[in-house]
Amino acid sequence: MRSLISNPRIRMASLLSALVVGMFGFGFALAPLYQLICGALGINSLGNASNQVSEETITRGGVDSSHRVTMEFDATVNAGAPFELRPLTRKLQLFPGQVMEMEYLVTNLSDQHAITQSVPSVTPWQAGEYLKKVECFCFAQQPLDAGESKRMRLRFSIDRNIPQEYKVITLSYTLMDTDRTQLKQASALEPRAEGS
């Protein structure tokens, strides 16, 4: 057994396999880590359902028609995930206090059932506290059957207290696969030294 471990090729193959498994693990841990860190720091925690605001609360103060904000929408998919995600509206304008609605389209390109999670981010990040979500697909995991396409709704508003300097805000979602079966399969393929 000692001769196997001292063999440079086997040692290198073991190290590379461990690195691949570690990278898969890190990729799957990104969504919960993101939410944990942002929650602890109090920044950009837009995917948390506890931040949901009722429409009545938003409309209670009326609409501020003196300040128009342009919202831009973007989407990315976590590297290697077999999905497509795109906003059906790329840009819209609204007044603070006005409730707007738009949709994203997600498609599962694989032949497997999947469970996804969308992680939001806002640019500039300081404007994130003024973005108020009434309803968002990011509040919960989204199951997708093989080949399924689904429209996912977002209802939101901009807080009336937003400073005038914020004229353009970009809301982006990163779609992640929460299924860990690929990680388990990669771990099962990892070479093991004899006798272990």
UniProtKB/TrEMBL annotation:
Cellular component aspect of the GO annotation: plasma membrane
Where does the record say this protein resides?
A: Cell inner membrane
Which InterPro entries does the entry link to?
Answer: CtaG/Cox11_dom_sf, Cyt_c_oxidase_assmbl_CtaG
State a single Pfam family of this protein: CtaG_Cox11
Q: Please classify the protein's predominant subcellular localization into one broad category.
A: membrane
Q: Which SUPFAM superfamilies match?
A: Ctag/Cox11 (SSF110111)
Q: Which UniProt keywords apply?
A: Copper, Membrane, Signal-anchor, Transmembrane, Transmembrane helix
MF terms (GO), sorted A to Z: copper ion binding
Q: How does it sit in the membrane?
A: Single-pass type II membrane protein
* Top-level taxon of origin: Bacteria
Q: Which PANTHER family match?
A: CYTOCHROME C OXIDASE ASSEMBLY PROTEIN COX11, MITOCHONDRIAL-RELATED (PTHR21320:SF3), CYTOCHROME C OXIDASE ASSEMBLY PROTEIN COX11-RELATED (PTHR21320)
Name of the protein in its database record: Cytochrome c oxidase assembly protein CtaG
